[in-house]
Amino acid sequence: MTDTPILPKEEIQKARHPMAEATEMFMKNHAAVAAAVVLMLIVLAAIFGPYIYPTDPFDMVWAPFSPPGEAGFLLGTDYLGRDLLAALIHGARVSIVIGLAAAFMSVFIGVTVGALAGFYRGYVEEILMRITEFFQVLPTLLFSMVIVALFGASLPMITFAIGIVSWTAVARITRSEFLRIRELEYVTASRASGASNGKLMFRIILPNALPPIIVQSALMVGSAILFEAGLSFLGLTDPNVVSWGQVIGSNRQYILDASYTVTIPGMAIFITVLAISLVGDGLNDALNPKLRQR
Amino acid sequence: MEPLLKVENLRIELATRDGIAPVIDDLTFSLGQGESISFVGESGCGKSMTALGLMGLLPEKVGRIASGKIIFNGEDLTTASEKRMREIRGNEISMIFQEPMTSLNPVYTIGEQIAEVLRAHQGLGRKAAWNSAIELLDAVRIPNAQRRVSDYPFQMSGGQRQRVMIAMALACEPKILIADEPTTALDVTVQAQIFDLLRDLRSQTSAAIILITHDMGAVAEMAERMIVMYAGRNAEQGPVEQIIDHPRHPYTRGLISCVPHIMAELTPERHELTEVAGIVPSLREFGKNQCLFASRCTDATQQCLDARPPEMEFEHGQRSACWHAKDV
Amino acid sequence: MTEPRNDDVLLDVENLTVRFAVKRGSTFGHKSYLYAVDDISFAIKRGETLAIVGESGSGKTTAALAVARLVEAYQGKVNLDGEDFLQLEDADLRKARAKVQFIFQDPYSSLNPRVRAEKIVREPLESLQTVPAPERQAIVDKLFTAVGLHPEQQRLFPHQFSGGQRQRIGIARALATQPELIICDEPVSALDVAVQAQILNLLRKLQTEFGLTYLFISHDLGVVQHMCDSIAVMYMGKIVEHADRLSLFNNPLHPYTSALLSAVPSVDKKRREATKRILIPGDPPDPLALPKGCRFANRCPAAQPQCEDSQPPLTEVAPGHKVACHLVDEKAVSPL
């Protein structure tokens, strides 16, 4: 009984993981690839920049308000005569670390809450979703300001403040994906062969729920960077650590006299967040199987 | 007499990732007034594409009619303007779909939706359209039409929704009703009711019916002639009784014998079902100059792989596109 | 490998009831219960096939899921080899699960898209630990050949298979733990007609080869007639008729069964001319407000006043032929 045609060799070799296909799809999206390259450069600058360009961003190195390009300072100096390029390079670290850490934290909380709610349903879901709603209706900026004001403006506390107010979106996405996938027959099939709840949740449902969660977390990094900038702009930040938002915040009075002191770090934030969004978009297209078909 | 609809050498091409594929390849048939014809075949054989082609609803930028003619009432629809097609759709040719659950708009009552069709196509006033909607619901045997007319789609069962779809399709007394797998999503007792309804409406309105299905039993009950489609091509066509009793194409024979039919008297022994091995070829294979069924055919010879078989005529207007049609 | 067909019963389901809580109104509104499966009993002999047929909403799939313990039964027993499957826990449950496997309707949603075919088939072996790890690959290889797939195809992902091939993978997965009972929930209704024949033939071949017992859920009477030794017809959560294949098709007694049979379109001209279509107008009753009497009474062409008063019990009117209808007595004559 050979009723299935023998597959040609190439077909067998095409047995690639769905992730490999997604990567190929991503590579076809030129804007996303370009954004990924830009993002990579920013990250590299954040990691290695301080070694290559060791000027302390808090040192007064030259006369205040020296415009970009003059006296050897590529991006000029601010109102205290501090090197803006140094601020940009050193600040990248903080912005990106806070962005990543806060996003990681909100994904961790969000996925856990969403997975439990979507998998167990019933009272677990009711309680967890009420908690989620509570965090959703909090005025986020105000709430994080209160946290920072109460517990001090250290980096971990800022990260915590951002993370605690932004996990709700991830929780909702995870829950709705779990609600959908847990009803699919392959999950039932695993139950029929005796898989434990833990295995069902994390080894079977979660991998299939990942695509929208990955996209959301990418965007989350961008919004966390923005959030950090907002807090620093308001002065709610560690004054001993330089970050992009803080540079804007401290120079905001001079926006009319020396606009570049605000525009340059602003552009840095803008480019980074835009790049992250474009990468997120690219991931969305690549991971969405409906688009992959044609 | 000129038939109502005459399709000549129709070729519909679809743009795919691997290039242009002829999803309908050289299809010729005609349909008389009040006649019932059925398209049969597996999914991916071009049954639904034929329907969309007739309606001028091919997916934009992807599908197009490459050559051939669709002559409806003496007018060639392949060259008709979009404006003219819009007049014809719903007015003279209408269609019902497989999914009664998604083909009605959930935010309007069924009365509003039927009345809308009547007002758009026939220019009826608000009141007149509403009254006609009630009459139509009555005609498709929805009990208590007077009251049900202001129900929303979610308040109706699948079978009732399909009746509403039929009512909408019949609103403008079309000359042709295309039913694309109208009962696939429905229970068998509901299917029987819908078939009865379609049969009665056909004799009352003398509309021609094109039924698209994969169920030979449904064909036998509903149609006078059938067209068996395979890989975008006409495999066999002719009178239903004739083809069921003496199929002249191995694919038709396979389609009939691979299904366990309920016979008049059931016997204890059960034979192994005849298998049609493999599956329908992918779009990439369409359009090759050979018999596309050859890879699944038990009687295939070198001739089948060398050239596409021409259609051969037999008695009673049976036509089969198989090199060995005489021996089948 | 063929097991002798003997008369011992493998699966004996007694008074199985499944109900779902339905909230009406607000969160605090009172709960009502929908009895999807209402007190049904049936048995399957080893090596045979029992079909449960019915239309949508009849409860046939819920009954199947409850037998496999994939939805919780409210009442009743599912005796498998003399043990009540519903009472087992932990290790005993795992052992019993290996004996009951499931084949699903939709070959597209029943396979995890992120996992290779070989791992899908191996999963039950890993979860249930019926065989030591080193032997598992050999079993998977054998199963691939048994269901008509090529061993090289093991490395592929589900989306690289056709619908029929995917269903073969699902069958291989069900066979992995050497089960005795396989529950087939509409195994071919999502497939093209030509592919249906391939899968049906495969299922019958595997049944003799491995001595399998099937509980076959379907709405397609043609398929059921071909596959099954006996048939239970369900309507609104109840079994209305239960008989062997020949009695049920040649002498249907319950008006609903007759209506169901008469509705199936046929290519057989003789049958078309012989059958008078029995129309059952209207809709089934609201499952949350069931009538006191026979649930089919409001659509039944033969209904009498007594049908509205009490529910007819499922009684044996001829050897092996059970009907739940007030109008059928020992003479076993259809009321129509």
Quick description:
The complex is a heterotrimer of chains A (294), B (328) and C (336). With 328 residues, chain B is α/β, with parallel strands linked by helices. Helices cover 33% and strands 23% of the residues of chain B.
Question: Which descriptors would you attach to this protein?
Answer:
heterotrimer; A: 294 residues; mainly alpha; MetI-like fold; 0% strand; B: 328 residues; alpha/beta; Rossmann fold; 2 domains; 8-stranded mixed β-sheet; 4-stranded antiparallel β-sheet; 11 helices; globular
List low-confidence stretches of chain A: 1-8
Distance between the termini of chain B: 33 Å
Secondary-structure-based class of chain A equals mainly alpha
Number of strands of chain B: 12
Q: What is the CATH topology assignment of the largest domain in chain B?
A: Rossmann fold
Task: Name the strands of the widest sheet of chain B in spatial order.
Answer: 6-7-8-3-9-10-12-11
Strand percent estimate of chain B: 15-25%
User: Biggest interface between protein chains, with counts per chain?
Assistant: B-C, 47 and 46 residues
